[in-house]
Batch of 3 targets.
Target 1
Amino acid sequence: MGLRDRIHRRIRRVVDRFSGEYSAPAPEELKPYERPGVPAEDAEVVMARLNRPVPGNRKS
């Protein structure tokens, strides 16, 4: 039993754990995601500014 066989066996175990055989069945009806809270109608979107140094001014 080499390293390759051990890795292969371990990978196979992980795949079996996540396979559809052991997972729960899908629900009959879909529930839409609901965001908590109330949306702000007067919200303002502002673009962020990054103060990055100019590439030509690198210190060496």
Target 2
Amino acid sequence: MTTPEYKEWWVRRINDNIPKISQENSQSIEEHLRVIPSELESIREDFERRNADLEKKIEQIKKENTNLRLDIDVQKHETEKLKKEKNKAEEELGSLKMDYKKLRLSMRTAGLGKTSEQWRAKIREEKNKVEEM
């Protein structure tokens, strides 16, 4: 049993628990209900972003490392080639020195290795022998 006053009060009453949309601060339902990321989620997203950046840097460093290894291989090959050429040149120099020594020895034994002064002295001797005859 309800009285007519109660029914009238019931119709006019205001339920304070129901939020009413104010025109001053009007937001759409999507904005009002959007999920605000937690601090942990923010940290995780930052970590994933940094991790992706570091992975890119690692890939770049790996490529540079590969290029440097190729450069090292080329330098080693060139070094070995130059060492072989140097050894060959040293062998040829040694051979030329031996040939030169043999030539000098054969010139001395044949008398061709005399200096110009020795030849002048030899010519004077021969002239003196001829004059004495």
Target 3
Amino acid sequence: MKTLTVFYDAHCGLCSQVRGWLSRQPAYVRLEFVPYDSPEAAHRLPSIRHLQADQEIVVMADSGEVWQGGGAWVTCLWALKEYRAWSARLANPAMQRLARGIVHSISQHRYRLSYLMGFQSDAEILRLAQGHESSRSPRVLHDLDLID
């Protein structure tokens, strides 16, 4: 396995923060991040619409294996150099139920948590950046401006 594709909610501030954190971590395998509701996501994983990716994270390996929810997070941790030991602990059958429950609870409340923590989503940041660019008035040239 050389690449993991992480399908995440780009409209969620917490999800976008976690995407940023994951992308800054030293990793054994390359992590690629794709908004779950994008055309790119549908192209890479045609069944994504049926996986309820709007509710919990989905991760796909370049081998075609797919994980969702707690298993997806454990797989992301497995990819990171400094967290592989944690992934092994959380993959232990005794811890799987706890990991699944925590991830499910956070996923259910991610928008509220984003609001409480003041996190902006990737989609909001992009929208604000595009709005800022479009709010600049273009310079109107007059006849006299064309003369040196």
